[in-house]
Amino acid sequence: xxxxxxxxxxxxxxxxxxxxxxxxxxxSLDDVRALCAAxxxxxxxxxxxxxxxxxxxxxxxVQAARxxxxxxxxxxxxxxxxxxxxxxxxxxxxxxxxxxxxxxxAAREGFRRASYVSPAATGVVCGFGSTxxxxxxxxxxxLAARTAKxxxxxxxxxx
Length: 159
Ligand code: DQA
Description:
By secondary structure, this protein is of the alpha/beta class. The chain has a single domain, classed as Rossmann fold, CATH 3.40.50. Helix content is 40%, strand content 15%. The chain contains 5 helices and 5 strands. It has a 5-stranded parallel sheet with strand order 2-1-3-4-5, sandwiched between helices. α2 runs parallel beside α5 (130-153) and α3 (55-68) runs parallel beside α4. The longest helix has 24 residues, at 130-153. The two termini are 26 Å apart. The mean pLDDT is 95. Bound molecules: 1,3,4-trihydroxy-5-OXO-cyclohexanecarboxylic acid (DQA). Residues 12, 75, 77-78, 101-103, 105, 112 line the site of 1,3,4-trihydroxy-5-OXO-cyclohexanecarboxylic acid (DQA).
């Protein structure tokens, strides 16, 4: 079995379904977790799904994903707009990174248009509510499969 896709969620996403539902929708974070797991399962993949309100913990998890994940889906929430440290951690990864947002930050307040995550992301999915996560999992599965294929195509280092 290959490594799981890690799905990391930043601050306030524990309140999903309750917090500004007109923006973020009515699904809870547990609903989103179930959608992600089901979508990954279609591709024979598993997920590791986590949420934290703490920047340092998010960074610890990004660092751990370096060795333990085949791809990373991350909704950095507010830290996406503020955290250089998160960008630095993401830059240490050589697995595919999919940035994911429920809302479309580009269509909201000006300060949400800047992302410290996008420069380190393989791609971004946003604006589709919890469907953003399902699409992000689709992308992560495709990217992970491609990465695995090119790794097996490479000759061993000492050949
Ligand atoms: C968010 C968008 C961010 O601007 C915001 O701070 C969030 C959630 C989203 O999923 O739409 O907390 O990442």
